[in-house]
Amino acid sequence: MQAVNISGFRPITTSVPRSAPYPSSARWRLPMKSSSDYGSCDFSCRQPLRISSSFSAAAAYTSADGETTLIQSSVGISDLLIVGPGVLGRIIADLWKKDYPGSQVAGQTLTTDHHDDLRQLGIHPISSGSNVEKFPNVIFCAPPSRSADYIADIRSAAACWSGEGSFLFTSSSAIYDCGENRPCDEDSPAIPLGRSRRTDVLLNAEGAVLEAGGCVLRLAGLYKFDRGAHTYWLSKGSDENRPDHLVNLIHYEDAASLSVAILKKNLRSRIFMGCDNHPLSRQEIMDYVNKSRKFDKTFDKFTGTDGPLGKKLDNSKTREEIGWEPKYKSFPFFLGVNTD
């Protein structure tokens, strides 16, 4: 795959232009800008400190809502800020701390609802508006569904990156403009801006990340035993969608390990894909669920006869460059089901 140099890359705005802000080529480099070009950080981030990986004494930081958090007063070279420490973000935090013992992991949240849970996991909770140092490593895992201005949130995260390590945004493979169950890899084109509000938000978010020098990881459908498309369909018993639509999956643990592997590479302005390379039809997924006998319910059938088909993702190029393989090579493998 060739890297594309775009010297005239224009800023991404919250409005939806009629032409794509960047080519759909999967990996390319963009002119670097300083974090000050991306607005002020929600945390009132300070200028990066040039320090060793050891920490000085802890200090108390007070967020905009008055909550006080104890956090190291100096940010180390292996420290990580997770914007949106939900299910995926918490697994990333655990893997990061195992790979970098003694490192500090902070998690930015919109509310304080889960701050006690984060502390128990060894993640320093930070509310928007808190005053903390810039971080050398930042990953943005927050979905757009709870954001009033997703692009502004992305720019705030970019402003909290010191530029020394990595900045990664977890996006979605829904951006790829592939259908009819056709093959799709990292170099496949993206859906043009203006076709869908959902993909417009993600495309503009990706553009802001790439322009800031960060990387993008387009993830397939996330799942674990009690979370994912299979649990939704299982709760319904039957579904009106067509059964032959291909679905691409990646286990939460594998999405986290791939995210960490990309962060460690210290790359700039690149797009990667995260999937298990074993796409399954909707019906196949639920057949494996029933065959596993690990769930309290059983699924009946899909009743649809028309509608759009899916895509067949292949992230072999990402695997080769990053040096990564999934723990769970397929959904039936995760369930312990024989595929013969």
List the helices and strands and how they pair.
Blueprint: E1 58-62, E2 68-72, E3 80-83, H1 87-99, E4 105-109, H2 115-120, E5 124-127, E6 135-140, H3 150-159, E7 161-172, E8 182-184, H4 197-211, E9 215-219, E10 221-223, H5 229-236, E11 238-239, E12 246-247, E13 249-251, H6 252-265, E14 271-274, E15 280-281, H7 282-292, E16 301-302, E17 311-313, H8 316-322, H9 331-335
Parallel strand pairs: 3-4, 3-6, 4-5, 6-7, 7-9, 8-17, 9-14, 10-13, 11-16
Antiparallel strand pairs: 1-2, 12-15
Sum this structure up briefly.
With 340 residues, this protein is of the alpha/beta class. Helix content is 26%, strand content 21%. The longest helix is centred in the middle third of the chain and has 15 residues, at 197-211.
Can you walk me through this structure?
This protein is α/β, with parallel strands linked by helices. The strands form six sheets. The chain has a seven-stranded parallel sheet with strand order 5-4-3-6-7-9-14, sandwiched between helices. Strands 1-2 form a two-stranded antiparallel sheet. Strands 8-17 form a two-stranded parallel sheet. Strand 1 and strand 2 form a beta hairpin. It has a domain of 237 residues: Rossmann fold (3-Layer(aba) Sandwich), CATH 3.40.50. It has nine helices and 17 strands.
